[in-house]
């Protein structure tokens, strides 16, 4: 457990919950990232503003959080995020995630946080399925192949 | 609420929510693919190498979100819009399961899901830019195919 940092993990989770709550109480929207991104195409233009605003906010907060994790919460420094396997893996993985989340109607945030928080049976099935699949892939790539 | 306010305030609320969401991802370091893979690597539990961080993140987020969803429910209304827009579907179908399998394949392969990938754009790693572009293209392609099919169905209905 070299990287496990429970304090920064729980604090980050609470912030994500607050974001979900803010978007819900203010605009009545589900803070599912794949849905916010996917809903841009095809969509009426008047609906694009809030989606783009949320998507611009993510990296702004991400950069600040990247710095706060180590400086304020004492989490171990992990350096810059990178994708193992390079550009080919990034391309294939991106397509799988994009197509899959659109078909399933949600990802880790939409089904995993918003859906489970609303006790949606659809989301419970989705979360169980993508968690089990992803864990199998990691088992294969780390321990078998 | 006048017209301009009703246009600008939801955008500012979404910007604020996006910043707080990104902060949460950054502080919890869910923006790092190796941390996600260290969580998904259940075979590492016996050796003590497992990283349960993601459970703490999801647990904290879930508890807080549940409180807000209890507060904000019909017949109340959101502060800035007319209705709560929620997916009320209940059926569990092939799309839900098949889509989740595809998503799981990509998530396990790379260690990034949509939120962290977009949050990582601020750090400008080339692979993440390719990942996000492919992710958007995949999602939008499905959306366009669906819209085209829906149009075809509409125009296939003979005019009276």
Describe the SSE topology.
The complex is a heterodimer of chains A (145) and B (160).
Chain A (H helix, E strand, L loop, with lengths): L5 H22 L5 H6 L9 H24 L14 H19 L5 H8 L3 H24 L1
Chain B lengths: L2 H25 L5 H8 L12 H19 L22 H17 L3 H6 L6 H31 L4
Describe the structure.
The complex is a heterodimer of chains A (about 140) and B (about 160). By secondary structure, chain A is mainly α. Chain A folds into 2 domains: about 1-80, no CATH class; about 80-145, no CATH class. In chain A, about 70% of the residues lie in helices and about 0% in strands. Chain A has helices at about 5-25, 35-40, 50-70, 85-105, 110-115, 120-145. The radius of gyration of chain A is 17 Å and the shape is globular. Chain A starts with 5 loop residues before the first helix and ends with a helix. The mean pLDDT of chain A is about 95. With about 160 residues, chain B is mainly alpha-helical. Chain B has a domain at about 5-90. Chain B is built from 6 helices and no strands. The longest helix of chain B is centred in the C-terminal third of the chain and has 31 residues, at about 125-155. The N and C termini of chain B lie far apart (about 45 Å).
């Amino acid at each position: 457990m070299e990287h496990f940092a429970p304090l920064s993990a729980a604090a980050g989770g609470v912030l994500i919950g607050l974001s979900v709550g803010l978007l819900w109480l203010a605009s009545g929207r589900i803070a599912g990232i794949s849905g916010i991104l996917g809903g841009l195409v095809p969509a009426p233009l008047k609906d694009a503003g809030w989606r783009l605003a949320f998507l611009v906010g993510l990296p702004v907060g991400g950069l600040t959080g990247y710095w706060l994790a180590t400086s304020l919460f004492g989490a171990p420094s992990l350096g810059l995020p990178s994708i193992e396997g390079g550009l080919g893996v990034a391309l294939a993985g991106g397509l799988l995630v994009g197509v899959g989340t659109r078909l399933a109607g949600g990802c880790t945030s939409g089904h995993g946080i918003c859906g489970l928080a609303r006790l949606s049976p659809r989301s419970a099935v989705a979360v169980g399925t993508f968690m089990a699949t992803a864990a199998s892939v990691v088992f294969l790539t780390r321990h078998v192949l | 609420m006048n017209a301009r306010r009703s246009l600008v305030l939801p955008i500012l609320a979404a910007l604020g929510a996006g910043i707080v969401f990104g902060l949460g991802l950054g502080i919890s370091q869910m923006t790092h693919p190796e941390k996600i893979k260290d969580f998904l690597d259940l075979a590492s539990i016996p050796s003590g190498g497992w990283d349960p961080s993601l459970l703490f993140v999801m647990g904290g987020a879930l508890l807080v979100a549940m409180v807000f969803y209890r507060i904000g429910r019909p017949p109340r209304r959101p502060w800035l819009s007319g209705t709560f827009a929620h997916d009320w579907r209940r059926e569990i179908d092939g799309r839900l399961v098949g889509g989740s399998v595809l998503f799981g394949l990509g998530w396990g392969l790379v260690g990034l899901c949509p939120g962290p990938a977009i949050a990582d754009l601020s750090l400008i790693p080339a692979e993440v830019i390719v990942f996000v572009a492919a992710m958007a293209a995949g999602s939008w392609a499905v959306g366009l195919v669906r819209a085209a099919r829906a149009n075809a169905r509409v125009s296939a209905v003979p005019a009276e």
